[in-house]
Each structure stands twice: as structure tokens, then as C-alpha cells.
Amino acid sequence: MDSPATPGSPEPSTTSPTTVTSPRSRRQRRQEGSDESTDSKIDSKTPLRQGFPGPLLRLPLFNGIVAENTSESIDWPRCLNTIHSVLRKYLVHDYSVSLVNRIPPERLPPVFDVVSPNQNLTCLIITQRDVDTNSWYLALKELEELYNVGSIGGFTIELIDPEMFQPEWPQPVGEDEAVIAFWPEIRTETMIALDKFDWYTLSLVRWGRRLNALENPITILIGAPAVIDETRDSVTNTIRKTLDRFFLDDIEIAVIPATHPFSPLDQPTDLILPTSAFQSSIAMGSCFGPRDVDTSATMGGTIRLHDSDGNHQDAMMSVFHCFRTIVGNEIESQGLRPTPNSQFQTMIPSDPDRQNKLQNLEEDIKRYSGKIEGLQQNLDWTGDSRYQKQIDAITNIMKTCQEEKDTIEQFDSTAGSLWACSGFQTEHLYEWSLSLATNRTSPNTLPPLGHSELSGPMDRELYLPIDDEVKSYLSQNPKTGSIVWKKGRTTGITVGKMNNVRTNIVLKDNQNRKHVFTGWEITPTKANVPFVQPGDSGAWVVDLEGNWCGVVFAQLASGSGVMYDAKSVVKDVERMTGCKVELP
């Protein structure tokens, strides 16, 4: 059962989400350890990581090499036998025991693989926590008693569940939870407490590391700029008082330092666009952006608008915020009514993605050219015909790259121009843009969904075959827990679940006016696979029957996406344009 620690392997980080422990957790610990003496040093504030003497060091930590002669100085073989006897007595699951040197990142030696003085000598026990018993508490209690009488000692004892190596992630809250009835009032008072931030996101989800959502606590999840501890504590204490009034002491609070929820992709990316991005047909989920702006978003799909005279117009839908820096204050505050041939041209693919593709091809051509030069020298020296075959093969590859580069340089990425947009209107807080395609078609053809994109057992009959199209949109709110998917510029096809509680996004503009955006949250179905990331804004959300459910307009630090439902977006588009909306 002994397993040596791997030097340099970090423990999971908990510095990204800052979770405030709820009274429920404290009460649960009192119930589990009602006979615990007041001088106990057991740190059990985190259910999946406990130990003594507390408090345990804050994660992340690195496992360093134990200094020489440590085993003899603490009589480790005898201590290990004692620890094994206690663990076998109480633990339900298999476990591993290691003696490691726990090192915080700021104390890492310049060369990590060298032995450093023992800073935090720790007996690290990795085992799954059994939620149905008090096995962890009972084992730690007996080990602490042995520690106090000197039977073991000279090190910290730390129990950690393997799920601590998994990231925390959000999952939907059920419709029948007690907090749902009180959430409108709790949300209002929470937003007052958060008013000191320039912007923030506010969600109610199940938040934790467990795959089973019901094992994770319901959590008020707040995304905000990085804040100091005093500010965070002040906010969470205020929210806690509100929860206590409703006797909701089982609700937890977590504050996550986050990037701006409306951040379009504005940094270099390793994504290499497929050649199909440069073609006459614009696919759903295509990379999209204004001309001469270093941002990328997603073109969701195409809607058809009929005016009062019976004329129709097909327009591509995305988000407004990628145009925000170029449209001016008037359009930002009032929106843009239908304007053919506006000055704001739209590019598909976006300018930065097109340049990135060309740069990658140029680097490939240079690399292949260097290989050919080296092979040619070998051929000249040896006369071996095998070098000639390699030269011919690489030359063909380089020729293909050059042809692709020439095609992209000659390709006109101008897809059209901005025709209408929502702006950030105080009275109607929606977030969309419509662009006219002048030289390319834009059908709402759905990409095929393969088995690999859908998590868990799924009915094969629910899969969407290739060449199906979005033909309708949901005329009602999406169902809680329903599975939906989207194709975005950054993350491609991802699958999520609809949350029962809407998310609020609050930001202040340059005039310090507050804007509150409210949308449906879509949580990821996998812990390590975010539903959206910057650059995915504008993507259409589609259910497994091929219905358009809504448009993604923001991303959360938790990996969730926030969408406006299609019904509301259509209503706002019709208000702004004076046209009747249908799908092509």
C-alpha cells in the first residue's frame, strides 16, 4: 500500500475558486464529532481533505523529496505500522500512504528535484471518503490520540480524497429545492451587496467535485474581478445573513476570480482553422468578427425577416459586444435599426484568425523548406536515392501548403456588414447583432453529432444526422436539465444541461450606469470540458431534436455559458427591426 510521492507533482489548486464554508458544514462536523475534545487539532473544514495538526496548508502544494535520514529520526517504519492498523480498522476503501515534504509554490527551491530541508513533513493518505460513515473522523480521532501520547509523531497527517484532484464544476439545481421559492428576494439582496464591483456574475448551482450532482452543495456562485480577502469576506458575510433569515444554512457561497463575461476572443490562439472555413457557404459556428478589430466571436445561425411590404431579408446572428468598440456611443446606447450597407463590415473568418492561419502555413513552408535543404545535402554527399524519395514527398506537402496559403490570401473574407443590433439599451437588455451576407450563403445546417461529443449513455435515435437543419425555435422556456449543445468558434461542439435558475450579469458602463443582463445558464456535462470559452459568444444553442433554443452571449468562470432564449431574442429583434422573424 505504500507508494512514494512523485517529486514535483502539485496537488489540485483551490486558489481559483474561493469557497466560504457554510454553517451546514460546521454543524455537520459538530454532529460527527460530538465527543471531540475542545483541544482537538483536526482540520475538517473541507470534506474531501482533512488532517491534523491543523490548520492544513492551503492548496496547491508540491510533494518534495524527504531529506536523508528522516525515516530513522522519526522511526517511520514503526509509525507506518501503527497508521496501517488504524486505517485498516476504519477505512472502507483502498488507500495509499506516503511520507512527503509538502512545499507551497512560493517556497519551491530553484532546482526542484534536489532534496530541500523538511519544511512540512506529512504522512499523505489518499483514499476515497465514504459519505455514509464517519470513517475519516474516527480514523483521524484515533490517530490524533496516538499522536498526543507520542506513539506517532514528527509529521502532519493529511487525508485527501482523489476527487480533490478534480476541478470544481457547476451542475443544475433542481426545481423542487427549497431555495427556489426564496431566490428572487435572496438574489435582490445579494446584488445590493455586490454593488461595489464594477461587474459581476451571479448564479445558483450545485458546485463541487462530485460526479453525482446531489452530493455537491447548492451554492451561490459569484464571478467577479480579483478582490482582496476583506472585500470578499464582507460580501459573503452579508449574503450569509440573508440566507440565515430564510433558515437556509445549508447553502454555500463561492467567489471565483473571473475574466469579464463579455470578453470576446482578443488574444493569440493555437487554433488552426480548417480550409473549409474559407468557402462560399458559411456554416453555423463559424469564426466571426468586425473588420480591422482584433476580436473573434461566433456566427450562430441565420434568420429570415419579413417587413410589412412582404419583402424578406436573411441575416446572420451573433452578439453585439464584439462591435462595441467601433460603433460609437449612440449605437451602443440605442442600438442600430435596419441599415443596409452600413460602414461596419463583418469578416468570416475574423481578421485575427485569418492572419493566424496564414502565419501557421508560412511557418510550415519554412520548416519543410529547411528539411528539403538538409536532405538535398545528404543526397549530394551520398547519392542515396532514398533521400530523393523523401525530398519528393516533402516537396508535395510543401506545395499543398503553398497552394492553401495562396487560396487564403486571395479569398475575400468580407461576408457582409452589420445590419441591425441591440446595443446595450437600459430598457431592453438583450445582446445580439444581425449582419447581411452579401457574397455567400449561410444555411442553418447542423453538424453531425458523434458519440464522442455526448457524455453518458444516449439513445442513438436522438442523434442528429448530417445535413439536418434548424427549422424551428422553442416558443417556451427550455426545460430544466434538458441536454443541449452548441458549436462555437473556440470550443467547437460541446454539450450542456439547462439550469433551473437564471443567471444575472451586472456591469457598469463609462457613465457608471448599471446594466443587468439575465439569461439561462447552461452547465457543462463534464468537469474538464467548459461549455463555452471566450470566442464562443454568438453560438446558437440547439436541443437534441434540432430546435433552436437560444444564443450564447456570455461565458462564466465556472465553464458555464449564459444564453438568451430564442423566444425572447426573436421578440426583441422584431421590436428593433419592425420585421417578422422566421427561420430560413
UniProtKB/TrEMBL annotation:
Residues 1-23 have a biased composition (Low complexity). Residues 1-51 are annotated as: Disordered. InterPro entries: Peptidase_S1_PA (IPR009003). Residues 30-46 have a biased composition (Basic and acidic residues). It comes from the Eukaryota. This is Uncharacterized protein. It comes from Lepidopterella palustris CBS 459.81.
